[in-house]
Amino acid sequence: MQDRLKQLLDQLPQQPQRQDSTHAQLADLHAFANRLGLYDAADAIKMMINPK
Fold first, then answer.
1. pLDDT tens per residue across span 1-10
2. Between residues 2 and 14, the one the model is more confident about
3. 33 CB-near residues (< 8 Å, 6+ apart)
C-alpha cells in the first residue's frame, strides 16, 4: 500500500459493524474507492453492484 494511503487509513478509527445490506455497503465502498483514486477497484465494485 502506498505510504500516503496507509497514513490515511491509519488515521481512521475502527467503525462498528454495519447491519445494512451488502449492496448498500458495496455502494459506499465504491464511493470511497473512487475518492481514494482506486479507480480499477471502484470499477470492479461497480460491476458487483450492477452486473450488466
1. 689 888 988 9
2. 14
3. 39, 41, 42, 45
CA–CA gap between residue 51 and residue 31 (Å, rounded): 17
pLDDT of residue 24: 96
Query: Can you give the pLDDT at residue 1?
Result: 67
34-52 burial by CB neighbour count: b if 16+ within 10 A, else e?
eeeebeeebeebeeeeeee
Helix (H) / strand (E) element for 28: namely: helix 22-35
Helix, strand, coil content of the chain in percent (nearest 5): 65, 0, 35
